[in-house]
Amino acid sequence: MRRRHLLCLWNDGENISPTHITSEREKALLKDKEPGTFLLRFSESSREGAITFTWVEGSNNGVYVHFHAVEPYTKKELAAVSFPDILRNYKVMAAENIPENPLLYLYPNIPKDSAFTRYYSRPTEGN
Fold first, then answer.
1. Residue 124 lies in a domain
2. How far is 123 from 31, CA to CA, in rounded Å?
């Protein structure tokens, strides 16, 4: 999986490639981060290789922090859409049924588009 679908991220030298950590460690790293901060990691549950991400929702004052994790993206899904494009176009339904992208900062605090713009397949309106 790494070679075929993530090589550009892996070889770039930036700290933007997925990491091999547990979901518990992931939450420990994210718990004091700003809402919208997300972390990429390899899935623990997939034998064939898959990537997932978790983001922080709520305040970072320690009173209320909620984590959202997505189902892992497999080789099959990554063959159809690049992982950077998945991150760019990811949406959840927010208040008043307005879709929004909750992914703002790549861990530890890199603006998402600063980290991934050069890997997007083509610009989208508003980016």
1. no
2. 32
> Does residue 55 lie within any of the structural domains?
yes
User: What ranges in 23-100 are assigned the alpha helix state H?
Assistant: 23-30, 75-80, 83-89
Task: Kindly give the pairing relationship between strand 37-42 and strand 105-106.
Answer: parallel
pTM for the complete prediction? Answer: 0.80
Share of the chain above pLDDT 70, in %: 78
One-letter amino acid of 8: C
pLDDT of residue 126: 55
If one counts the domains in the chain, the total is 1
Residue 123 included in any domain: no
pLDDT digits (tens, 9 = 90+) for 3-14: 454 545 544 555
Residue 87 half-sphere exposure, CB side, CA atoms within 13 Å? 32
Residue 27 lies in a domain: yes
